[in-house]
Predict the structure.
Amino acid sequence: MFRPKIKVLDCTIRDGGLINNHKFEDSFVRAVYKAVSEANVDYMEIGYKNSRKLFSDQEYGKWKFCDDEDINKVIKGIKSNTKISVMVDVGRVDVEDVKPKKQSPVSMIRVAAYVKDIDKAIFLCNQMADKGYETAVNIMAISKARDVELTEALVQLEKECKANVINLVDSNGSLYQEPVEYLVKKAKSIIKTKEIGMHAHNNQQLAFSNTIEAIIHDANSVDCTIYGLGRAAGNCPTELILGFLKNPKFDIRPILDVISKEFIPLREKLEWGYIIPYAIAGMLDEHPRAAMALRDGKNKENYREFYESIVGTEE
Amino acid sequence: MFRPKIKVLDCTIRDGGLINNHKFEDSFVRAVYKAVSEANVDYMEIGYKNSRKLFSDQEYGKWKFCDDEDINKVIKGIKSNTKISVMVDVGRVDVEDVKPKKQSPVSMIRVAAYVKDIDKAIFLCNQMADKGYETAVNIMAISKARDVELTEALVQLEKECKANVINLVDSNGSLYQEPVEYLVKKAKSIIKTKEIGMHAHNNQQLAFSNTIEAIIHDANSVDCTIYGLGRAAGNCPTELILGFLKNPKFDIRPILDVISKEFIPLREKLEWGYIIPYAIAGMLDEHPRAAMALRDGKNKENYREFYESIVGTEE
């Protein structure tokens, strides 16, 4: 028996944009929107709403800024029940840039923040909620959060924040199913008025199983990306989640189509997925930035040396 | 606190041989043996002991037959505590080909069988045990086993079989953590005098997590392959298992080295890993043979058509 409350958020364009400075062609974004719409995915996260005062639109593509006009252009004419989501980072958004919900194609705004910035996240999230948006807070680097501070953050979120969903983000791809169970149960024990969600990274090929694990323990929101596209090792694949969930409304076939037509060619140009330096970063619970730097250089297959550089032992 | 009883069996050459008709160069097999030896992996499975009366040594490489002389040649001079394992299939081995343990470099012989062949497997396994080998039975296609028949097979194995280990094999890569928990607990409730092991396939990126799940429920033997090399989607990666297990005897670094030097170049020539048709076969609990045939043809990226051909619906 399926659980109708489970919502799927495809963040292919948003998380994938972290690999290419958000420079996806409109035709690609449109193909993804069409596929997730036909598949009946609940939400599609299309990018960040970052301030143009902080980031140059020479350096970054349009999905770093997500102007309403750009969104309207790529979704125009496509029949869809899929809601559009955008992400905002604490300290990187001009709140005035965000129009009231009624004037925007965006339905949901998600605030990404570390535990230490939870007060800022709540303040920002409530501003977005007051503009009429569905909202969420994504707690990043959850594997590094100190337990007592995470408890306090969750208590604050429950009491002070208007978010509809609190997402646990395994930024380092370091969790396996036992810590996921612990974290989801902990969050559920404190957060009673909002849903809990999971955003997993795939460094150790655990993004899908960690997402299943969160579902088993009653998380009702899951993030995924088509063919796992996303920063470094990428994310929980949308096609696997749709193959797993039993809700008859989901249709995997449009996702299979868009992988054949768009993602297989894209993978020739952009690198993501199971790659040993990302696996090493995951098992050592480190941010993938050092591994990403390695992959950009000429020693990209020197795995042992990279491992030694992280664990800090010289031979 | 680590569990000293957990044994790691690397079956890179044996399962990987299913992709290339067991035609690995001696230098490659030797590099793998050196790596798993330096990493202190407990067992290395090097191939099948199949009958030359049934299989041509023109068509198949030497690791389809695993003559003791060939094994001795590739392991010669390498310091190692890693024991050698070979696999035998019910009905495909000449028992006379297998010398007594004392005359052989092989330590363990594993019998692969479906539930329907469990009587034959027990008979063969006991013959091997009587020759002095450590033995195991690998129950293949466990996801397709009918529960009552699996119960009977497990009862027989416990009562009649001399095997040291009973391995649960997710041939189709279709299990996720809840069925793994069910199957391991079921096996442990019947099998009291032998260890339970897990051999997972990676169709849905669940091989590592299913192996962890088996460990959580007290399986003490785990199969893995370097960089996941293995038939179709491949297996649980050895490097991830060694990154996960806490036993200080394991050293991941020689495995990282051999991936850099041998497996990255090999992946340019041989295909395995997360590939959509294998994922589809996994989510539909089908053997990967149709997906493997697709990947050998010119329509190899026609995922939707392949999906329709399996679910049997015409549009």
Remarks:
- DSSP finds twelve helices and eight strands in chain A.
- The mean pLDDT of chain A is 97.
